[in-house]
Amino acid sequence: MARPHGHHVSIETTLARGAAREAETAWKIHRRDCVTCSRPRGDRCASGQKVWRVHAEAKAELARQRALDKAPIEGQEVLF
Question: Which comes out higher in pLDDT, residue 62 or 40?
Answer without folding.
Answer: 62
